[in-house]
Amino acid sequence: MKGFLEGKTILIMGVRNRWSIAWAIAQSAAEEGAALVFTVQSGRELEQTAELVRDLGDYPVLECDVGSDDSIQSSFEELRRRSGVIHGLVHAIAHARSEDLEGDFIATTREGFAHALNVSAYSLIAVSRAARGLMSGGGAIVTLSYIGAERVVPGYKVMGVAKAALEATVRYLASELGSSSVRVNAISAGPIKTLSAKGIPNFGNLLETAAGQNPLRRAVDRSDIAGTALYLLSDASAGVTGEVIHVDAGYHIMGV
User: Fold this and answer.
1) Which residues have C-beta within 8 Å of that of residue 148, sequence separation ≥ 6?
2) Which segments are annotated as binding site for substrate?
């Protein structure tokens, strides 16, 4: 399948380290011929990510604080100068304050709730608005969700609410951007060992339960998610938008 994304420029937002899902997607996209551009949240992460990206090739890494409209505008203006056009965007950005994941959900602070929704859901609206002008020939936007958006997952708490908002955002964006031939979809990934996942209490139990109860009787890995992301970024999914595709070995269909 080499060359699946040949001639496409893909923006990857949210690579934090080599164990992240975003990095697995970037690796697979590069193997399939895509030209990549990366963004990081702050200058503090710039050199670390640039060093990681050098393993793939000579790809630009830009700073983009998704909590700032000015930063988003500035980074996309730089992207326009560098690439002129983009064909795909991977939004792998989410965050909740640790104190809002440790206590009871009912104890979630107003500030913590606003932070989780702003970073994890509103950011998709903000970057999609900026990306639309660079997708002059149409394009694909892909974000990452989790079953905690649909069901109560112990320890997930306010992130579950944020992911539910993210999935609704996917549908509304898909409806509005479809006339510009821009597709918007989400991947609901099964539990995967990442550094971010370590912030979820009892994550090891979630991983074991999902692997033991899903139809395939195995844990999903980053390559499973990356494969679906390649499909959604490619012309093979030209008729797919507004979807939340579960890549969890079928766990979401089970009643227990």
Assistant:
1) 156, 159, 160, 163
2) 96
Any catalytic annotation for residue 146? Answer: yes
* Residue 231 is a catalytic residue: no
Q: pLDDT, tens digit, for every residue of 6-22?
A: 999 999 999 989 999 99
In tens, the pLDDT along 18-27 reads 999 999 999 9
Query: What are the binding residues for NAD(+)?
Result: 14, 20-21, 41, 65-66, 93, 163, 192-196
- Looking at 59, 122, 146, 172, which residue is catalytic? 146
Residue ranges of the binding site: 14, 20-21, 41, 65-66, 93, 96, 163, 192-196
Element (H or E) spanning 128, and its range?
helix 123-132
Six-digit token string for 249 = 């070995």
Dist. CA 200–CA 194, nearest whole Å: 11
Banded model confidence at residue 126, pLDDT cuts 50, 70, 90: very high
Q: Residue ranges of the domains in the chain?
A: 9-245
Which pTM value belongs to this model? 0.93
pLDDT tens, residue by residue, 218-234: 889 999 999 999 999 99
CATH H superfamily, domain 9-245 = NAD(P)-binding Rossmann-like Domain (3.40.50.720)
